[in-house]
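Sample A.
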Amino acid sequence: MWTDLQAVRYTEARHEMVDTQLRRRGIGDERVLQAMSRVPRHEFVPAEFKEQSYKDHPLPIGEGQTISQPYIVAIMLEALDLNSKDVVLEVGTGSGYLTALLAELCRHVYSVELRESLAQQARTVLQRLGYANVTVFAGDGAQGLPPYAPFHAVVASAAAAEVPQPLFAQLAEAGRMVIPVGPPETQQLQFIRKQTGNPLITVLEGCRFVPLLTPAANSKPIPA
């Protein structure tokens, strides 16, 4: 009975999150709103923070990483404008919450997480929730996944000083990328469209993400 009551409380909190934190603040893409109404964010949050799962702020998930604020996640998803035929690269699986949302909106998600422990935790949760159109790798996300490119969309959940060139190179023509760029104090959430091989950049929002860590030495920025 207590489990049933908890499930009802989480569902109510999730719907309130969508109404008050997203819809009232200008998120208008109904597919994004419906996806965020369906995906149980509390399943991706450590036990000690589950009661805060639907609050308007990021939460720690271990390894110095966080699950992003729902509003920022919604901005990223709305900007990507995904459809059911898209194949998406996610850089920084983290908890797997954004991965699940992407899986609700596109054909397949390839996600890369630098930390093996987080990659495995995300795989476990995503499999338990039935997301079959997701593949999670442990590795250097800044290098992308060349064997699976090109991607219709790329999204990063960690901030880079500059957009890594391999990610832009693996973006299909007319593809979309959303990535936080800049130092910790002055990051911008950037939307990048690839047009005739060049980046067209729009700043979406000020933001603050954990840094994109990469062991590779050849992660060069895209040309201006």
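Sample B, a different protein:
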Amino acid sequence: MFPLGTVLFPYAVLPLHVFEPRYRLMTKRALEGDQEFGVVLIERGSEVGGGDVRFDTGTLARIVRAQEMPDGRYALTTAGIRRLRVTHWLADDPYPRAQVEPIPELSGADAPGARVRMIEAFAGVVELARRIDARVADLPAFDADPMRAAYEAAALAPIGPLDAQRVLEADETTTRLTVLAELLDDQAEQLRARLDRE
């Protein structure tokens, strides 16, 4: 398990610089095996040194590219595969480990409608952000599949790690899209307030 200060979503890409000895060992063992490990958000504490408190909902990551440096550090490119739930944390020796189970993906009552609502909210944020900074990127083309679109949007949304964790923990796609739309609406309100002050 790799506790981090960021949330990894399924379908998202996460580059990692692995420098702590315990995570170097974890990476080496992952590369010798199925090239997978779990990523969870740190609730309290820091990424370096241990002693952190972690959330139990995370994402299975797969290493898609690895480069070992001469001093033993690794530069990794990983991709989120699917959500997981920690059922039991094991000893952190030699690195954080846990027993996990996959979390099933449920669509919900109106996932396509919730997808449209989320995209509208995201478009509103992009439009307002462009009024502040013309260099803001265009609205991405989100996948037609509501589940995948929810994860793609969550990975790109201007939300903090605790809000991202809320999105990851949502029980079904419709709920996830609804929560994300509400968070984007909040962001739009903040942008409007900023524009009003300028």
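Observation for Sample B: The chain has a mean pLDDT of 93.
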